[in-house]
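Hi support team,

I've been running sequence recovery on a batch of backbones for a student project. Most finish fine, but this one hangs at about 90% for roughly twenty minutes before it completes. I'm not sure whether the input is malformed or the queue is just slow. I've pasted the structure tokens below so you can try to reproduce it. Let me know if you need the job ID as well.

Thanks,
M.K.
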């Protein structure tokens, strides 16, 4: 297992280019299973989760050709299987999109339960409810979910909870369903719009993505031969914006859609961080005064993203006074604060609220990444801490950040990766 070594307290300076969005690419790839043909995807991030998705789709018969560093050709001509039960399914949350895509294309899917980061309870009841509404029968056997439908028929579906995964999965299953499917209380995240754009380019009829009502009129056929460019990663962009602010740096974050960053930009401005929005980049300037404390509540888009909650906690630790974070999506997403306590963070957690008494120095020590975004928080803590920080469980960070070490080094950070055989920490 590799580890990261960081010597902190160097302000980040320079330019960084954000990669394609992990969660968009993880939906677009399985969506390609809906066609029998070839499509080209640009701006695909080179990260572990994408490798795992390719691996899973490869076992179904999909072929992949890397055209260049971030362009991928996907050929689903040879896909005839609807059964995906390999080990990688457990390692990837987005493997649940195989349900919607395979059900849509073959009217049948057998998959193992999805994995992903552990934030407490992660049910898939709304996905199942949606598939059933379209006419599928659902059973669970020996750890596998079996979906089957003689035919899929469009239906009105109301999501009791705003769910990104259920919204996308129902879109995938409904593109070939007879008639119209309406998803009410749909999630509005930028990657939902990206996946709908991809489906429409293939010939689907999806309207309203990005609002809370999505209408999908079923079509008889989707056709490949298209090129689609994945949107920039909102969470990676936010991680660099927060890293720049936390180190009192001066960083131009490029390949960004500023609209996607509005909730973070507003919070940074409130905290006294100068943020300049440009056409497709955001410049974080060094502030002239101290950071001010703030209260943050995570919410579905366009609210503050839960996936930026761990990185932004490190920023709040730099602001004098008590800040609060209220986690509005997941019931157990503060475990990483235990790691940051070892560095001197003064935090108290009460249910879904964390109180951060900031303005106290962090000091480097050995900590572990507990999941992907928790890992990003560890890296940011290392960047601001006195002395040396060692981070283990780097594989979690590799799941979602392309070349994080190289990008931070280019911004002047003293960070390196040690490749070797370190004991995997238990958790
Ligand atoms: C996706 C993201 C994840 C992000 C999350 C919220 C991917 C691969 N992962 O996860 O990084 O943190 O959105 O922005 O894109 N829920 C139910 N029943 C369901 C499904 C969800 O009750 O069937 C609840 C969940 O417990 C949670 C809320 O809905 O409280 C939101 O979950 P959801 O948006 O579905 O998250 P994911 O799609 O798993």
């Amino acid at each position: 297992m590799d580890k990261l070594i960081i010597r902190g307290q160097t302000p980040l300076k320079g330019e960084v280019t954000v990669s394609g969005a992990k969660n968009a690419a993880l939906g677009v790839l399985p969506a390609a299973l809906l066609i029998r043909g070839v499509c080209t995807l640009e701006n695909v991030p080179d990260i572990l989760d994408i490798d795992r998705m390719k691996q899973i789709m490869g076992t179904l018969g999909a072929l992949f050709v890397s055209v260049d560093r971030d362009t991928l050709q996907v050929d689903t001509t040879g896909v005839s299987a609807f059964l995906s039960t390999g080990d990688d399914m457990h390692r990837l949350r987005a493997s649940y999109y195989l349900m919607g895509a395979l059900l849509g294309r073959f009217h049948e899917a057998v998959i193992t339960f999805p994995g992903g980061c552990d934030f407490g309870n992660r049910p898939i009841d709304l996905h199942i409810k949606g598939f059933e509404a379209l006419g599928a029968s659902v059973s669970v056997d020996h750890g596998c979910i079996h979906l089957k439908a003689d035919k899929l028929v469009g239906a009105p579906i109301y999501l009791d909870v705003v769910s990104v995964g259920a919204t996308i999965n129902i879109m995938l299953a409904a593109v070939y369903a007879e008639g119209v499917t309406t998803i009410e209380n749909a999630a509005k995240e930028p990657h939902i719009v990206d996946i709908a754009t991809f489906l429409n380019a293939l010939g689907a009829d999806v309207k309203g993505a990005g609002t809370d009502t999505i209408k999908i009129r079923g079509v008889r056929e989707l056709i490949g031969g298209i090129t689609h460019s994945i949107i920039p990663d909102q969470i990676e962009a936010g991680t660099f914006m927060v890293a720049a602010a936390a180190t009192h740096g001066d960083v131009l974050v490029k390949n960004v859609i500023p609209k996607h960053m509005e909730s973070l930009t507003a919070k940074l401005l409130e905290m006294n961080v100068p943020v300049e929005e440009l056409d497709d980049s955001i410049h974080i300037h060094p502030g002239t005064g101290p950071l001010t404390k703030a209260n943050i509540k995570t919410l579905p888009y366009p609210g503050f993203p839960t996936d930026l909650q761990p990185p932004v906690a490190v920023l709040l630790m730099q602001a004098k006074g008590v800040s609060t974070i209220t986690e509005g999506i997941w019931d157990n997403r503060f475990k990483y604060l235990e790691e940051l306590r070892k560095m001197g963070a003064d935090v108290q957690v009460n249910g879904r609220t964390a109180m951060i008494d900031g303005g106290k120095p962090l000091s480097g020590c050995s900590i572990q990444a507990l999941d992907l975004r928790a890992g990003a928080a560890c890296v940011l803590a290392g960047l601001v801490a006195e002395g040396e920080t060692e981070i283990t469980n780097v594989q979690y960070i590799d799941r979602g950040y392309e070349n994080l070490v190289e990008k931070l080094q280019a911004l002047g950070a003293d960070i390196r990766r040690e490749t070797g055989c370190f004991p995997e920490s238990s958790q």
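--
Follow-up from support: It reproduced on our side and the slowdown came from queue contention, not your input. Residues 23, 26, 93-94, 121-127, 161, 163-166, 187, 306-307, 329-330 surround uridine-diphosphate-N-acetylglucosamine (CB under 6 Å). No action needed from you.
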